[in-house]
TrEMBL record:
Species of the source: Prunus mume (Japanese apricot)
Pfam families registered for this protein in UniProt: BTB, NPH3
The keyword Membrane appears for this protein: no
InterPro entries associated with the record: BTB/POZ_dom, NPH3/RPT2-like, NPH3_dom, SKP1/BTB/POZ_sf
UniProt record similarity statement: Belongs to the NPH3 family.
Pathway: Protein modification; protein ubiquitination
Domain of life: Eukaryota
Descriptive protein name: Root phototropism protein 2 isoform X1
Region (Disordered): 515-584
Domain NPH3: 184-463
UniProt domain BTB: residue ranges: 29-97
UniProt KW keywords: Ubl conjugation pathway
Length: 584
């Protein structure tokens, strides 16, 4: 019912408008032209005089007297046909930048060319396009916008190509030599275009060699206009979770976002990182393609040194800020930046584990501060927390104070963790790299595992005993850890030697119990070995044991009790001395 009322309304309006310049004629109309839902009562001889297409329809009609003509497929619809009919009747009307493309396409459809009739509609619209509409950047953009509903005929007539060519040429000049303020006024006007024509404009700008910053400026303005709720306002109004991912709105947002990402300039640093982070969160929200998300992650990773905590939080939380949204993208971004820094360190023949660039140090501080912000989330697992913290190389943190703060916040927000789980959380930081204030706090922090508290106390005691300055102690932290590892290795070697001493004691005891026969044979073996005066001297069993015992000496320069240099010449195996070998 509503559609019929609407159609009758349009019909009556069309008849009324037509009557204003037709019914005043004394000759009654003889043809009804149908254009969609509108009907126009006109005169065939007036239309045939200007339109070769209508003349063909009349001549080729099988009806003896053609009274109805259907032109519903005319470009521009009823409004454009009405202006074309006025032109046929010689009624004045205004050609504007808004309707010139439609009139040009309608003239082509009706074959209202200069070959058929001098000074016809085709020539009039072409003159206006060339002399007026395409003489300015604003006019070219408006005409290009009007062509969106005139495809494919506007494409065939090269109107789209001409508009894009003029617009890119004048936009390049305007970007280099602004004629008004603000200097990016033209990007606002460009944002009226559909994404397809906008993409053609951006592609043409790139082919002209436009600077990446100019292209980026146009893309940012366009994205903020068409994805305002997702990218600019961060209000989530257009991101209502109740909207299905398969809804028309979500599909439209997804297609638009993927198209915008595909238009980004090749220079990675041309776009600000906060804008890229907003795009990535929008891509995650609307479930854009993996290729789209990967491209954004790579671009953010390249310029991660400029990232702020707020930028990372934009990626992590939902639009209402109530729950964690996407930590996987953050992990990929940080990992990509670290790999890039590793490649640079290898190229420069540096040790990435010990020395990191200033950019890596800045990123490390930002990541630690970011961990402190997300640590309060109760649904943040230990594996995800540690996974992000461990991405930053140890050398990128001169002190672990910021990381300790994040760990403490996490432990406070998750009070039900057992001792083992708390140790896992604390494993990401190094207690020897805490500042004095942080160590004092850690030594009194009941949330920390006992092991971490002992490490902090041990380091303070070591500092007090050595009397070394705090900065020097921080520099010697690596040396201290290395010495501890050496002590552990020495303890293991000591244990193996203790086992060998036990075996030696049992061997001597068996010799003493074997009797004179064994002693004689052993003495004969000793005498025979000693007769080779000129040959190299072979070490006895006791000398080899003495050398192994010397390894237990912790002093590298030796001592008066070092047995490694004892000669075995005067040792009588048959009458061994009474010697007590300590195995303690």
């Amino acid at each position: 019912m509503a559609s019929s009322v609407k159609g009758n309304s349009r019909l009556s309006i069309a008849m009324e408008r037509t009557g204003q310049w037709i019914f005043s004629q004394e000759i009654p109309s003889d043809v009804m032209v149908e254009v969609g839902e509108a009907n126009f009562s006109l005169h065939k001889f007036m239309l045939v005089a200007k339109s070769n297409h209508i003349r063909k329809l009349v001549l080729e009609s099988t009806e003896p007297d053609l009274t109805r003509i259907n032109l519903s497929d005319i470009p521009g619809g009823p409004e454009t046909f009405e202006k074309a009919a006025k032109f046929c009747y010689g009624v004045n009307f205004e050609i504007t930048v808004q309707n010139v493309a439609a009139l040009r396409c309608a003239a082509e459809y009706l074959e209202m060319t200069d070959k058929y009739c001098d000074n016809n509609l085709t020539g009039r619209t072409e003159d206006f396009l060339t002399q007026v509409a395409l003489s300015s950047l604003s006019g070219a953009i408006v005409v290009l916008k009007s062509c969106e509903e005139l495809l494919p005929i506007a494409e065939d007539l090269k109107i789209v190509h001409r508009c894009v060519d003029v617009a890119t040429s004048k936009a390049s000049i305007e970007a280099s030599f602004p004629s008004r303020t603000p200097t990016n006024w033209w990007t606002e006007e460009l944002a009226i275009l559909d994404v397809e024509f906008f993409g053609r404009f951006i592609t043409a700008m790139k082919l002209r060699g436009a600077k990446s910053l100019i292209v980026a400026s146009a893309i940012i303005t366009y994205a903020e206009k068409w994805l305002r709720d997702l990218v600019r306002d961060h209000s989530g109004t257009g991101a209502n979770s109740a909207v299905s991912n398969d809804s028309a709105l979500r599909i439209r947002q997804r297609e638009l976002l993927e198209a915008i990402v595909s238009l980004l300039p090749s220079e990675k640093a041309a776009l600000p990182i906060n804008f890229l982070c907003c795009l990535l969160r929008s891509a995650t929200f609307v479930k854009a393609s993996s290729a789209c998300k990967t491209e954004l992650e790579k671009r953010i990773s390249v310029i991660l040194e400029h990232v702020t905590v707020d930028d990372l939080l934009v990626l992590s939380f939902t639009y209402d800020g109530e729950r964690l949204f996407d930590l996987e993208s953050v992990r990929k971004i940080i990992s990509g930046f670290v790999e890039k820094e590793k490649s640079g360190a290898v190229f420069n023949a540096g040790d990435f584990r010990e020395v990191c660039s200033a950019a890596m140090v800045r990123v490390g501080k930002t990541v630690d501060a970011y961990l402190g912000e997300i640590a309060t989330c109760v649904d943040l697992s230990i594996s995800k927390f540690n996974g992000i913290a461990n991405l930053v190389p140890k050398g990128a943190r001169k002190v672990d104070d910021d990381l300790y703060r994040a760990v403490d916040i996490y432990l406070k927000a998750h009070p039900n963790l057992d001792e083992i789980e708390r140790e896992k959380v604390c494993s990401v930081m190094d207690a020897l790299k805490l500042s004095y204030e942080a160590r004092v706090h850690a030594s009194q922090n009941k949330r920390l595992p006992v092991q971490i508290v002992l490490h902090a106390l041990y380091y303070d005691q070591l500092k007090l005993r050595s009397g070394v300055d705090e900065n020097e102690m921080m520099q010697d932290a690596v040396t201290t850890r290395s010495q501890v590892q050496q002590d552990v290795s020495l303890a293991r070697e000591n244990e193996s030697l203790r086992t060998e001493l036990l075996r030696m004691k049992m061997y001597i005891s068996d010799l003493q119990k074997s009797g004179p026969a064994a002693k004689g044979s052993l003495g004969a073996a000793t005498t025979s070995s000693g007769k080779g005066g000129g040959g190299p001297r072979k070490g006895t069993f006791f000398s080899s044991v003495s050398k192994k015992l010397g390894k237990l000496n912790p002093f590298k320069q030796g001592s008066k009790d070092d047995t490694s240099n004892i000669m075995d010449e005067g040792v009588d195996i048959t009458k061994p001395r009474r010697r007590r070998f300590s195995i303690s």
